[in-house]
Design a protein that fits this description.
The protein contains eight helices and 15 strands. It is of the alpha/beta class. It folds into two domains: 120 residues, 3-Layer(aba) Sandwich (D-Maltodextrin-Binding Protein, domain 2), CATH 3.40.190.10; 89 residues, D-Maltodextrin-Binding Protein, domain 2 (3-Layer(aba) Sandwich). Helix 1 packs across helix 7 and helix 1 runs antiparallel to helix 8.
């Protein structure tokens, strides 16, 4: 899955100005930070029916900018080149469901983590109320996409049969049809199917909390302490004033 894969970036980081080209102080006197996002990852970032860039990350970045006293300009950027563009100074930051990993921290800096997008359990809405964790499904079959951290998590629970699928959508369909008892997936993927998808939102539900740690952060160019500081200042506010919880309710619950 693209958001948790480790990327080895062989880039030469040239001397660049503090802000990417185009990021200049506006007439308001507030600086503008250009932020890249790959808008193919609902409900975190995607293009809606009105051709607008929307999602959890987009709302969050706008809230960070308001709290931090700067403006934000988004740039829809394909995932396969998004980090190289950051290193080259094409934009100032990336918010795109980016998992903080040791490998990535060698080539870029990260904001304070803003959400744990770890694995969660999806069950049918008519499932027993006692089914809140994987351990509660002992004797049942639980699906996950093959090769993911979700599949690993299911396989480690005694008494639960792991059913693997080439695509998570196939597991979701089997769950909706009652052929398996649960599905384990990343929090955003679970929310997209169980909460946002009209084919499943009346049938499925997410239960319990994330049971693995896979934290998302805003990435900035290595050594760009001023932009990182502006983002972290705004992020600290929205983490503490209830904004992040409101966005979770809107997009992920």
């Amino acid at each position: 899955m693209k958001k948790i894969a480790l990327y080895v970036l062989l880039v030469a980081v040239a001397m660049t100005p503090l802000f990417a080209s185009g990021q200049e102080e506006q007439t308001s006197g507030m600086p503008t930070i250009t932020v890249a996002s790959d808008a193919t990852w609902p409900p975190m970032e995607f293009i809606n029916e009105d051709q607008e860039l929307v999602g959890f990350d987009i709302d969050l970045m706008n809230a960070i900018a308001e709290a931090g006293g700067f403006q934000v300009e988004f740039q829809n950027t394909a995932w396969d080149g998004i980090f190289a563009g950051l290193a080259n100074g094409d934009y100032d930051a990336v918010i795109s469901s980016v998992t903080i990993t040791d490998e990535r921290m060698r080539t870029m800096d990260f904001s304070t983590p803003y959400i744990n997008a770890g694995q969660v359990l999806i069950v049918r809405q008519d499932a027993p109320a006692s089914w809140q964790t994987l351990q509660d499904l002992s004797g049942e079959s639980v699906g996950a996409q093959i090769g993911t951290t979700g599949a690993i998590a299911v396989g480690e629970v005694d008494g639960v049969e792991l059913r693997t699928y080439d695509e998570i959508g196939l597991a979701i369909e089997d769950l909706a049809q009652g052929r398996i008892a649960g599905v384990v997936a990343d929090t955003p993927i679970a929310a997209d199917y169980a909460l946002q998808n009209e084919n499943y939102s009346s049938v499925l539900q997410i239960v319990g909390d994330s049971f693995t740690d896979e934290y998302y952060g805003v990435a900035v160019r290595k050594g760009n302490d001023e932009v990182l500081g502006m983002i972290n200042d705004g992020l600290e506010v929205v983490l503490n004033d209830g904004t992040v919880e409101e966005l979770k309710d809107k997009w992920l619950r």
